């Protein structure tokens, strides 16, 4: 799910829903957005998934990538649990993650951007789905989402 934080009076708007996290498929969908518009995107918040990093780099080449603070903290808390359980060799996993994402982690401090609005938007959609006790017709559900949130 791709959202625009500034859309709909800064409440956020839906830009695209893609049924996969395969980078090539998502990039293909995002390239349908005119390149002049994609080049206007200044900043993208994302988790530490390598596919998301690739999507951001290819679809929005001028945008600054910011690793969401929540995901960094989650890894750090995981390390604390591992250390307390005496599996300290696992620290290498956390260290490598932070090392490979250090630029986008430090980008957080420029604007304090987080992925919270995207997570909140996802919760809105789940609540919308629950309101109707599920989805019988996926195409119709997506149509309604696009009319309300896009």
Question: How helical, in percent, are the residues?
Answer: 55-70%
- How far is it from the N-terminal to the C-terminal residue, by CA? 12 Å
The general outline is globular
Mean pLDDT: 81
Number of helices: 10
Strand order of the largest sheet: 1-2
How would you spell out the order of helices and strands?
Answer: EHEHHEHEHHHHHH
What share of the residues does DSSP label as strand, in percent?
5-15%
Q: Provide the low-confidence segments as ranges.
A: none
Structural class: mainly alpha
Largest sheet: 2 strands, antiparallel
List the domain count as a whole number: 1
Explain what the structure shows.
With 150 residues, the protein is mainly alpha-helical. It has one domain. It is built from 10 helices and 4 strands; from the N terminus they run βαβααβαβαααααα. It has helices spanning 7-10, 23-30, 35-38, 50-59, 69-84, 91-100, 102-106, 108-111, 116-131, 138-149, and strands at residues 2-4, 13-16, 43-46, 64-67. The strands form 2 sheets. It has a two-stranded antiparallel ribbon. A two-stranded parallel sheet has the order 3-4. α4 (50-59) links the parallel β3 (43-46) and β4. α2 packs parallel to α4. The longest helix has 16 residues, at 69-84. The mean pLDDT is 81.
């Amino acid at each position: 799910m791709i959202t625009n934080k500034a859309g709909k009076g800064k409440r956020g708007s839906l830009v695209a829903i893609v049924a996969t996290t395969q980078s090539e498929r998502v990039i293909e969908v995002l390239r349908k957005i005119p390149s002049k518009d994609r080049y206007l995107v200044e900043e993208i918040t994302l988790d530490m998934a390598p596919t998301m990093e690739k999507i951001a780099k290819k679809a929005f080449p001028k945008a600054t990538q910011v690793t969401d603070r929540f995901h960094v903290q989650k890894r750090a808390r995981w390390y604390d649990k591992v250390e307390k359980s005496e599996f300290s060799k696992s620290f290498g996993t956390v260290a490598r993650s932070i090392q490979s994402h250090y630029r986008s982690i430090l980008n957080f401090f420029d604007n304090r951007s987080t992925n919270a609005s995207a997570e909140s938007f996802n919760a809105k959609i789940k609540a919308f789905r629950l309101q109707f006790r599920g989805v019988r017709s996926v195409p119709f559900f997506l149509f309604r989402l696009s009319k309300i949130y896009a």
